[in-house]
Amino acid sequence: xxxxxxxxxxxxxxxxxxxxxxxxxxxxxxxxxxxxxxxxxxxxxxxxxxxxxxxxxxxxxxxxxxxxxxxxxxxxxxxxxxxxxxxxxxxxxxxxxxxxxxxxxxxxxxxxxxxxxxxxxxxxxxxxxxxxxxxxxxxxxxxxxxxxxxxxxxxxxxxxxxxxxxxxxxxxxxxxxxxxxxxxxxxxxxxxxxxxxxxxxxxxxxxxxxxxxxxxxxxxxxxxxxxxxxxxxxxxxxxxxxxxxxxxxxxxxxxxxxxxxxxxxxxxxxxxxxxxxxxxxxxxxxxxxxxxxxxxxxxxxxxxxxxxxxxxxxxxxxxxxxxxxxxxxxxxxxxxxxxxxxxxxxxxxxxxxxxxxxxxxxxxxxxxxxxxxxxxxxxxxxxxxxxxxxxxxxxxxxxx
Length: 400
What we know:
The chain contains twelve helices and twelve strands. It has helices at about 1-40, 45-55, 85-90, 125-150, 155-180, 195-235, 245-255, 275-280, 285-300, 325-340, 370-385, 395-400, and strands spanning about 60-65, 70-75, 95-100, 105-110, 115-125, 265-275, 305-310, 315-320, 345, 350, 355-360, 390-395. Helix 1 (about 1-40) runs antiparallel to helix 2 (about 45-55) and helix 1 runs antiparallel to helix 4 (about 125-150). The chain is elongated and about 110 Å long.
């Protein structure tokens, strides 16, 4: 009986410890989603507050947010706990769980769009969990001791009847540990101490099962929130077009293509003419509606694989990742100007705007994202100098 009880206690300890670890990992995953924008935008104060909110939970000794180079960006310490060098030396590029005595070390990478931005380190103290487990096993031990006192009078009968439910509990614990199926239940066949033990074990499995389901639902919600956050990070809230983050990512893909021969691509830098006049004389609401209409009109005449982005203000960028010739891109620029020159009416008033476009080609004019963007920007300003409401193709003469 002692052997069976010890085995059950060991199995339960590992189950409870692993459940505690899974709970901590889910919390760490949620925190990694929350602090990712803070790490990207170098918002150290917000990151420190976020770590403190999680770190103030019971049993958390240390929380650290590190940059990709291992430098500590923000941290939370409990009771002057200082992590050892071996804790901080561990790489967090992969999710890792390490047990060190009564401390559990967790490492979780911080990623945005599958790009490694840093990692989060958590040190959890398992002492409180151990005390709770010892109290539970002590309670179970008291019940079993009482059973032994009663069994002294009817030893033979008790040996035949008591070992069966205990072995059943042992087998059930082994199945739960192996299958991780917390919906399993032990059959209560008697109302004595064994029955109490069985009910207690069933109640423990029930609580773990409920906790597991709640954690699963929480994880699904966090994943949905993470997807919404990723979408918000890459979308302009006014026009619903991709923003500068999405544009920079696509521009890197186009200019970084290793195809031979390289594909011809075009970048159009677009700026509205007289937009400040619209804002000053008709109000920012009219300006916002004008920007939305401009985005819709351009979107309606481009291809499905072309990327139209709003960079900010009245600036747009149109990336054509694969074109047959420069003539096709210039023809599209002309159609965009004609389309925008059609009256844009907001509140029964025609908005007096035009559009200036600068074109640059990769790899003809530039092979890096910044160079290509600068070339298109120079061409756009050349269109402004030429009288606005037109387009210009980049050349070194135009740039000069």
